[in-house]
Design goal:
Elements (H helix, E strand, L loop, with lengths): L1 H12 L4 H15 L4 E6 L7 H13 L5 E6 L10 H6 L14 H20 L2 E6 L6 H11 L7 E7 L14 E5 L5 H10 L4 H11 L3 H12 L14 H13 L2 H13 L8 H10 L8 H11 L2 H9 L5 H15 L4 H8 L8 H16 L3 H12 L5 H15 L4 H14 L3 H17 L3 H14 L3 H15 L3 H14 L8 H14 L5 H11 L9 H14 L3 H11 L12 H16 L3 H15 L7 H13 L3 H11 L9 H15 L3 H17 L10 H11 L3 H18 L2 H15 L1 H15 L5 H17 L3 H18 L14 H12 L17 H11 L4 H8 L3 H15 L6 H25 L1
Parallel strand pairs: 1-4, 1-5, 2-3, 3-4
Helix pairs in contact: 2-3, 7-8, 8-9, 9-10, 10-14, 11-12, 11-14, 11-15, 12-15, 15-16, 16-17, 17-18, 18-19, 19-20, 20-21, 21-22, 21-23, 22-23, 23-24, 24-25, 25-26, 25-27, 26-27, 27-28, 27-29, 28-29, 29-30, 29-31, 30-31, 31-32, 31-33, 32-33, 33-34, 34-35, 35-36, 35-37, 36-37, 37-38, 37-39, 38-39, ...
Keywords: ATP-binding, Nucleotide-binding
Organism: Streptomyces katsurahamanus
InterPro entries: AAA_16, Sig_transdc_resp-reg_C-effctor, Tscrpt_reg_LuxR_C, WH-like_DNA-bd_sf
């Protein structure tokens, strides 16, 4: 086996070297004829087969005694010894000096040694083989040049190798010789050699990519892979011929400049891609040398070192501190050239302590870029590293707060601890107040509202101006909504503050008071809108902006102005994949509104897409988001993924001592799931838990969690009609006080289930009339199903089946795939319900043309109807109390569904739909009369 491997190695290193060997054969023939020649084999990097080619030339010319052979090899350890290499070429009886000579003395020695060569060559032609001339001592290099200038009339072939450019380490006369640069092996040659060694296709590709055609590396890789697979594709094994070959080059066989170049290139291409040419040029400045490598050599070496196997082998040969120093310098070069902050920061992560101002700045900017791209872990790593260096107290406090906000969703304890540290670092009162609000929001997210309130109270005590005190008081009231005991007192404080509240604070004061009164059943939706809408244009203190918009969006959502609520949320919340900032209590509110508004609109896919990732990322890490979890679970339930819905609500765990209203939402969702499973008693229990939690907050209105309606439906299933009717009547009373179609229609449906008979049919008819033009598509479909069954039960099958078909059309629209996804339709809970009801009522589903107004939402139908009548967007906006942007968005959506492009086409579409509806209505009678 050793003999076979040696033979294979020689075959490999001599592949694609026919031109070199042919040139050497011609030069040897000329030398034997008395016309001496020199030949220089050069390569810019080690491992290109210079020595192997030299050995092959020597073997061929020594065969049959054709030429006498003299061999010498330069070594870095002997460069300080004059004539050390020359001494290897001559026998011991030839006097070669041991010290450096100058002037005529050196000339006399040079002449004498050349005379010795001529005398010996006269007896038999001579081949002098000198390997690694670049490592020879200076005196020996000068003698080689002296010999080359006198070789023309001697039967001597001088073959030299050097790791340098073709010009060589010494000037050689071009008339008497030639320089040959050894090229890298082609990819096809490497593949042939790998295949001959029994390697597979993937292994052959590895040999091509990780060798850059370098014969020595090809040979080492083939040997390594023949022994078995490498541990993984991205790192070299701890011990391998390949790694040992590169390490040996770096430590022993290259000069200090070349070593630095290799290390710099390995560091520069650490991300796996070759460094840019302009960066390569500047890296050369890191390794100053009188004869730097050519740009082509740098590019080839850069490509080789972009492969992880080569790069890691080079870096393994570095001394401690070298890599960090190179990363620092390259980061500085990148920063000076205006490179992306991420490119600079990725280098600085290898620096123990980023001690300069520009380093902290680059890490900070890179963290911002990473957050915008949704790479939170990467951003946190940048900020942690920036904090490891020297910073002024305010800068350290700011970065600490930002890091805490990033850590919070994934680890409440770590994030809150970091935010507390940031608060303690701030010395300015205003900054401390801002830090206190961030910490309190984090504590709310971490389900610790008691501590959050203490933090805000403490910040208020040290506030240095009256307006700041009022800002903190208002934010404290917002946080108090998560604490049963503190909520009523906070509202009382706001009522006392309201008459004297500064103009920039008053909108939020009004909003929070209105939230309390709406929940307590003390005002209607119309009254709420009259308070909120005028204040949306009022100036608000920047410190309260998100909190005010969160309160306003909540009230708009409750009033069923879903597009407006969504618009306010979208104004402040970042678009995915940028994560929301949970250290802003206002953004927490807007996050909840955005999710619930989409859920109420039947946009279940949107709820899941926008919130599931955050819910799953924070689950089990201390940050629990009960309301957001409830929204995601309900959306999954609606699209038929009931198991995943249960998993979501179960993962949150118990509320413990937390009395936040968010847990009431989770209880309500849990009750929905129990009801879907047919576990009616468990559903009643959870509805009542929800109700108890809401009542503790003085929240009796059904605007958020209609627990009485749900409990009434479940009690009816259990046969407890009296209890069901009591809850349904109470719910209907509060619903009529609020006055939106959604709340009243939902309560009427529950009342119908509780009373039955004629009253049920009347209630369901009223509910359907209310819900059809409303944005409450889910409630509309559920009511139409009940109405259809009630009509059929009362003997009016035609009306019953029409109601069921109408419910089915709504369910089909809600179960359609998300816009722009092109995916298949979802099954959907409502669709399952309507299909079952259609089967039981012996009704067939109406064919869906996809181009009529039945595809429109209720809001779209209202806007399209006004547009068809000739009203402008501004007039529609004013008439429906919607923003201009909302009207335009609905019209765009309607045009797509109706497959039209112009406003004038609306009249024809609506007339066609009206005719279709009339024909459908008279057809059953026509059949009877016929």
């Amino acid at each position: 086996m050793p003999a076979q491997r040696k033979k294979g190695e020689r075959a490999q290193v001599l592949m694609e070297r026919d031109e070199v060997l042919g040139t050497a054969a011609a030069a040897a023939e000329a030398a034997r004829a008395g016309n001496g020649r020199w030949m220089l084999l050069s390569a810019a990097v080690a491992g290109m087969g210079r020595t192997a080619a030299l050995d092959a030339i020597v073997r061929r010319q020594a065969a049959d005694g054709a030429m006498r052979i003299g061999c010498a090899r330069g070594a870095p350890e002997e460069t300080a010894f004059p004539f050390g290499l020359v001494r290897q070429l001559f026998a011991d009886d030839v006097d070669v000096p041991f010290s450096a000579l100058a002037g005529p003395d050196e000339q006399r020695v040079f002449h004498r040694l050349v005379t010795c060569v001529a005398r010996s060559a006269a007896e038999r032609p001579m081949l002098l083989a000198v390997d690694d001339l670049h490592h020879a001592d200076e005196a020996s290099q000068r003698w080689i040049g002296y010999l080359a200038r006198r070789i023309a009339e001697l039967p001597v072939l001088l073959v030299l190798t050097a790791c340098a450019d073709p010009s060589g380490p010494i000037p050689l006369p071009p008339a008497t010789g030639t320089s040959v640069g050894l090229r890298s092996l082609s990819a096809s040659a490497v593949v042939r050699f790998a295949r001959a060694a029994g390697l597979g296709e993937d292994q052959a590709v590895t040999c091509v990519d990780a060798s850059a055609g370098n014969p020595a590396l090809v040979q080492a890789l083939v040997a390594d892979l023949a022994d078995g697979p490498l541990p993984n594709a991205s790192s070299a094994p701890a011990q391998s011929r390949y790694r040992d070959t590169i390490t040996d080059w770096i430590r022993h066989r290259v000069d200090p400049h070349s070593r630095q170049v290799c290390l710099a290139l390995a560091v520069a291409s650490e991300d796996g891609t070759p460094a840019e040419p302009d960066l390569l040029e500047r890296i050369l400045d890191l390794c100053p040398h009188e004869r730097p490598p050519s740009p082509g050599s740098m590019l080839r070496l850069g490509r080789l070192l972009s492969h992880p196997l080569a790069r890691e082998a080079v870096l393994a040969a570095a001394e401690p501190g070298e890599i960090a120093a190179l990363h620092t310098r390259i980061a500085e070069l990148l920063d000076e050239s205006g490179a992306a902050a991420t490119a600079v920061a990725s280098r600085l992560l290898h620096v123990d302590r980023p001690g300069e101002v520009w380093m902290a700045r680059s890490l900070d900017e890179a963290a911002e870029d990473a957050v915008r791209a949704g790479r939170v872990a990467e951003a946190a790593a940048y900020l942690r590293h920036a904090l490891s260096g020297p910073l002024d107290p305010d800068r350290r406090a700011t970065l600490t707060m930002r890091l805490g906000a990033l850590e919070l969703p994934h680890s409440a304890a770590a994030g809150i601890r970091r935010l507390r540290t940031g608060l303690e670092l701030h010395t300015d009162v205003q900054e401390r107040a801002t830090a206190a609000t961030a910490l309190s929001a984090a504590l709310v997210a971490g389900r610790n509202p008691d501590t959050a309130l203490r933090v805000l109270h403490q910040a208020s005590r040290i506030a240095d101006d009256d307006e700041l005190v009022k800002v903190l008081q208002t934010l404290t009231a917002l946080v108090s909504s998560h604490d049963t005991a503190a909520w009523r007192g906070a509202i009382a404080g706001l009522r006392a503050l309201a008459p004297t509240a500064p103009a920039a604070i008053e909108p939020l004061v009004c909003g929070l008071i209105t939230e309390y009164e709406a929940g307590a059943g003390l005002c209607s939706a119309a009254e709420v809108l009259a308070r909120v809408r005028p204040r949306l244009a009022a100036p608000v203190d920047p410190r309260l902006r998100t909190a005010w918009l969160g309160s306003a969006a909540t009230l708009l959502q409750w009033a069923d102005c879903l597009p407006e609520a969504r618009e306010l949320a979208d104004m402040c919340l970042p678009a995915p994949p940028t994560p929301p900032d949970l250290t802003d209590v206002g953004l927490q509110c807007l996050l909840s509104v955005r999710a619930e508004a989409a859920l109420w609109a039947g946009e279940f896919h949107r709820v899941i897409a926008e919130n599931a990732a955050l819910v799953e990322a924070s689950a089990g890490q201390g940050v629990r988001l009960p309301h957001l979890t409830a929204m995601v679970a309900t959306a999954r339930f609606e699209v038929g993924r009931r198991t995943e819905a249960w998993e979501a609500v179960t993962a949150v765990g118990p509320s413990g001592g937390d009395s936040s209203w968010e847990w009431n939402e989770l209880s309500y969702t849990r009750a929905l799931l129990h009801a879907a499973d047919g576990n009616w008693q468990a559903a009643v229990d959870d509805y009542l838990v929800c109700g108890a939690g809401q009542s503790a907050h003085d929240f009796v209105s059904p605007i958020a969690t209609p627990w009485r309606s749900g409990a009434a439906l479940a009690l009816g299933r259990l046969g407890l009609r009296k209890e069901a009717r009591e809850l349904a009547e109470e719910e209907l009373h509060h619903a009529r006080t609020w006055g939106t179609a959604r709340t009243v229609g939902r309560a009427l449906r529950a009342y119908a289930a509780a009373v039955g008979g004629r009253l049920a049919l009347e209630s369901l008819t009223e509910a359907a009339e209310l819900l059809r033009p409303s944005p409450a598509a889910v409630e509309c479909a559920e009511t139409l199903i009940d109405l259809g069954r009630a009509h059929i039960g009362a003997g009016n099958g035609r009306k019953g089946r029409e109601a069921l078909r109408e419910a089915d059309a709504v369910a089909l629209r809600l179960a359609a795939p998300a816009p722009g996804t092109g995916g298949p339709a979802l099954s959907g809970r409502l669709l399952d319900m309507t299909e079952k009801a259609l089967r039981e009522g012996r009704a067939r589903r109406r064919p869906q043309t996809g181009g009529g107004s039945e595809a429109l939402t209720a809001a779209e139908r209202r806007i399209v109807g006004l547009a068809a009548e000739g009203h402008t967007n501004a007039q529609i906006s004013s008439a429906l109390c919607l923003t201009r942007r909302t009207v335009e968005s609905h019209l765009t959506s309607a045009y797509k569904k109706l497959r039209i492009t112009r406003r004038t086409q609306l009249v024809a579409i609506l007339a066609q739909d009206a005719e279709t509806a009339r024909t459908t209505a008279v057809t059953p009678l026509a059949g009877v009369l016929g």
